[in-house]
Amino acid sequence: MKNRVTEILGVEKPIIQGPMSWLTDGKFVGTISKAGGLGVLGINAGQTTPATTPEETVENMRREVKIARKITSNPIGINVIPTVNGHDIYTQPMLDMMIEEKVEVAVMVGAFSKEWVQKFKAAGIKVIYRGEPTAETTEEAINGGADIIVATGFDEGGQVPSQVIGTFSIVPLVVDAAKGRVPVLAAGGITDERTAKAAMALGAEGLFAGTAFLAAEESRMADNIKEQLLKSDATDMLLYRTKPAYYRSLPGKLPNKLAEMDHNLESNEDIFKASNPASGMRKGMLDGDLSDGFASFGLGISMIHSIDPVATIIDRLMNGIK
Fold first, then answer.
1. What is the pLDDT of residues 149-179, one digit of tens each?
2. Which domains does the chain possess?
3. Which uninterrupted H or E stretch holds 130?
4. Of 121, 123, 251, 258, which has the fewest Cβ atoms less than 10 A away?
């Protein structure tokens, strides 16, 4: 199909894979892009241990870009998190590498930076912006030159928005705030054709999906966590406070402890420290260790019943978009 999202990004299907930090690599991303969506490399793509320097970070990412390019010549993206009003030693080297390797899309998250959006766009790189989903942030991002905005509902996995507003309510809010000036992607709880259809009915012009792709054969996620995902639904997820707002995880020794700390009204800061923030996702979702890590999914896990190839997942979502 063709719409504004596919035209801006140069892709066949308006389905963008969420970056998901440790849980992506060149093979995974290349396969998604080959199937017609937009695969996006997360900040720790392909790694099993953290990089120690900006140079190592960039070269690790370059390696995964080259792997993806061996699979497809279709557009791919990279997750960038510019520092706003502070010293940033990562974004310029990453931008330089993206120019050298002809990476087409930057998925920018966090506080909005007009300066960095303009730098990426000057290099011919399209910018998808995902920040706190509010009318004010939407206006700022559009005025700052973002090509596409992501409207994220509280249904999502990972770092949950600070405002407890579900996908069904936040998507039309952001769409209305955008006033047709840029397309909006829906994120949060979208894993099957019904939720995809609902997102488009709410005014979205594409999907920004993470949990749906974690249930892929090509996903790096640990097999035991994939198995637990299939046995779980939204009612099994634990929600707890942390920095900057909320997080959710499948049950396990560490997640249970964090949920108990929340129940006991311990501070967000203390819960954040106890969550092993530097390694919790890697240990939980890549290594499959929920005694010292966590496993976060969106509430759309209720509609996931099998581990399928990436192409099957994209076809399933497209059945709701068509």
1. 999 999 998 888 889 999 999 999 999 999 9
2. 4-219+303-321 (3.20.20.70), 238-296 (no CATH)
3. strand 126-130
4. 123
